[in-house]
Each structure stands twice: as structure tokens, then as C-alpha cells.
């Protein structure tokens, strides 16, 4: 069984983007009411958008299921006001729900949250509850920087976030720490902002007792953990120097994915981080598309790197491909039951 824990619906039918354009244009009209989702997308359009893209890659690469969430760079929490983010989250999450309903074996759903910089998390908590309890979602993406590139909000370990963590624990769902676009021209979104955020989030967590307060909270840091595995010695040393617990304690609650797009990077990740903390992922149809001329295969064909990694036991490989995902996302149980009965 192979579960890809990190895919975005980057190929959604154009009506979604058109709605977003009209929604944000409305913000510029003085006195105009907010534009709630008003678009229609047919089932065949959804099927077509996936069959040629994500589903084709799943089949080619032997991936059984992808945990799918809305396009991360389009979350753009800095745009407009809390109502803007709420309407946009509804539009995107409802579409993900339709994908998971049309393809209950090939996709499970993770939601975006209607965060808005400078505002509280009540709407995010309500949307998480709606998605998990009413729509069967199994987790959420949490933007640690809803300003989208300016980092002027509280760190992930601030009590500002605690009500959301309480709800995540209650619902038994993890979050992937995932930024969106970057309004700051210093930080290219996928080349700098994403990896900066992964790295910054890890350091925030290292400095805090958030997992003392929430011992069962689970956070996935994507893109291989940013710069963290490469600088593992620095983080171990900083923790020691500052009287913080060893990293092994932090790694009871923190997981990295395998969205690292070359063999040496994956080899380093596997050597430094325990296989119990690594979840298979490709972010296919995401940040980096195209073929690596050095290998002849797509950069994001991460299964090849895991398969080729030496010194990885079959047990460890199985954990990375599926076992860890089933543990970190307990609500995958319903999908696993469907998968098992379909296989018989
Ligand atoms: Zn992503």
C-alpha cells in the first residue's frame, strides 16, 4: 500500500479560479456585499481534471491513494477580510469533498482553513469541524503565516493557536504546516517561502512546550522538513545549549514528508530522521514540474528515490509508504476499510 500524504488540487476546473477573481474584484467595489460561492462545476469536469493529471500519475507511479487538499499557493489568506477567506475556504473545501466522493479509493480530503491575519481562529475551528464531522475530512493545512510573507503574526507556539489545537486533538486530526503565496518579493513562494516556513516552524516548536500542553497533537512539516534534516546537528546543538529536551522528544509529535526532489536529499533525510517520522509524499502537480535531465524522470517522482534508497529495511519502507500515514491520520481507518474490501 502506498499513500501519498501531500497532493493539492492544482488542476481544478477553471470555474474555481474565475470565482476567486470575481470574489476579489468585488472587494474593490465600495459598498458591494461579499460574493459567496456561486459557481457550478460538473462531475465530468472534475473527473477530466483528475484523470489526465493526478490519477494518471498515481497509476504510473503505483500510488494507491493521495491525501488531497486545495491548492496551497491559492489560499492567500492575506486577501480581503475574514469573510473573504471563509467563502474561499468553503468553495475550495467543498470541491475537494466532491473529489473524495467521486473517487473514494483514490483520494481522501484535507481542508484549508479560513484564516485571516489579525483575526481569531473561530471560523477556522468551525470550518475544521464542518469538514471533519460533516464531510469526512481527515486533517487540515495550517498556514503559519497568514500575512503571506511578512511573518507579523504570533508563532505557532503562541496561545493564539491553542483553541485550534484543542479542536484538532478533540477531532483526532493532524495538521500539515503549509504556507501559501508570498507577497514579499524577497521570498519566492515555492523556492524560498515554503522551505523557510518549514524550517522556521520546526525551530518555533523546538523552543516551546506546546507538546507538553498537547501531548497528542500531530504536525507534519512538508517538503522534507525544509532545511532541518540538513542542519540536524545545529538543532540538536541549539536544543542542548538552550536547555531544551532532546529532539527525540519533539519528534514524538512532528513528522516530515518526502517532498525532496533528488536522491541525495532523500538519502540524507532517511539517514538523519527516523523512518517512523517520515511520510511518503510527492506534492505531484505542485511546486516542481518537469523532467530531471540527469535521471530522465520527473523531479516529483519521489517513489523512485524511496525505492532506490539503500539501507532501508522493508519494514521501514512500509512505514514510510503507508504505516505512518495510517497512524498520523487515524481517520484514514474508514478509507483503509474501503481499500481492503475493494482488494478482495
Ligand atoms: Zn504543498
UniProtKB/TrEMBL annotation:
MF-aspect GO terms: carboxy-lyase activity; hydrolase activity
Protein name (database record): 4-oxalomesaconate hydratase
Keyword match Nucleotide-binding: no
Tree of life domain: Bacteria
Any one GO CC term of the record: cytoplasm
Pfam family, one: Amidohydro_2
Domain Amidohydrolase-related: 3-330
PANTHER family (UniProt xref): 2-AMINO-3-CARBOXYLMUCONATE-6-SEMIALDEHYDE DECARBOXYLASE, ISO-OROTATE DECARBOXYLASE (EUROFUNG)
InterPro entries associated with the record: ACMSD (IPR032465), Amidohydro-rel (IPR006680), Metal_Hydrolase (IPR032466)
Organism: Cupriavidus plantarum
UniProtKB keywords: Lyase
Example GO biological process: secondary metabolic process
